[in-house]
Amino acid sequence: MGASWDEVTEGMEIPTLTKNCSTQQLVHWAAGSGDFYQIHYDHNFARATGLPNIIVHGALKHAFLGQLLHDWVGNEGRVKRVGCSYRGMDYPDEEIQCKGVVTRKYEENGERLVDLDIWTENPEGTRTSPGSATVRLP
Amino acid sequence: MSDATQESLITDEMRAAIGKESEPTTLEVDKTSVRMFARSVGYTDPVYYDEAAAKAAGYRSLPAPPGYLGTPIFDPNRRAVRPQGMMEPSRPLKRVLNGGTDVEYLADVCAGDVLTSTSAVSSIEERQGRLGEMLITTTKTTYRNERGEVVAIMTGTGIRY
Which residues in chain B are closer than 8 Å to A84, comparing Cβ atoms? Predict the structure, then answer.
């Protein structure tokens, strides 16, 4: 069961989704998304471009935020929009916390909608992918 | 702020590309690709893996998870199409970073759908940032299903530096 619109209040936090990417997960993502840029799985290549390590794909963090929202709204709700910018890098084998806070609850064109601020957070507490989203709730 | 004495990174060719729609790309959404994508993100919801569970939840087939908008049909005999607006700037920039992704969904996308996407550059900006000289390209891609309905609009920001 997902969230229900009646129970949502502005300012409430939604349940955190915690991720920790193994290098294997990044390879899964490369295949699943079709993004085979080597900075995400080849250490030598990543270092040669000036990076300290291989980095987690930005679009994977966007997809994590999509999962954060899907897991919260369930299948009777829908993710209507999810957007984020990639402000900081995240690395394999480090925790990535995906979080969201409700900023607005409203009805539009007969739909019960909720806007949220969403972000991923690294172990230092820095928001590496801040963004916003809109979901529809039953 | 860019140095006034230095030539803009943005060429006339790049400026002329702003707003021009690309050739269409065909993308397939199938059960295997949905499962692969969902697994790579780490979803545990059975609707992304089990068609019976998806149908019981009201979907036509396995739904595409947020962020998945089909897989382009690969053709080894066709040269890769360069993304819109990604032509050479006036001074070479070596590196590329993904600056951000925003996707708006207008209808469900499910396994069995064949999508057509077209994209256009909406803006090109140059900026001095922590990475030095940067070129920021915003591209809007529109995805339609076989019935011609717009199912998603993706805005992507690419950074070259």
Answer: 100-102
Give the CA distances from residue B93 to residues A39, A85, A89, in Å, rounded to whole numbers and listed in that order: 17, 21, 20
Pairwise CA distance, residues B108 & A128, whole Å: 29
Instruction: Provide ipTM, 2 decimals.
Output: 0.96
Angle of the A23-33 helix axis to the B31-41 helix axis, nearest 10: 150
CB atoms within 10 A of CB A117: 14
**Residue A26 corresponds to which tokens in the numbers above?**
């990044």
Q: Which residue has the tokens 């993004």?
A: A35
Give φ, ψ of A83 to 5 degrees: -140, 145
CA distance B154 to B84: 14
Nearest to B100 among A31, A50, A84 (CB): A84
Closest to B92 measured CA to CA, from B17, B7, B9? B9
From the list A49, A66, A85, the residue facing B100 with the nearest CB is: A85
Q: Which helix (H) or strand (E) holds B114?
A: strand B114-129
CA-based R_g, chain A, Å: 16
pTM tops 0.80:
yes
Chain A residue closest in CA terms to B99: A86
Q: How does pLDDT run across B15-26, given as a tens digit for each residue?
A: 988 999 999 999
Q: What is the DSSP letter of A73?
A: H
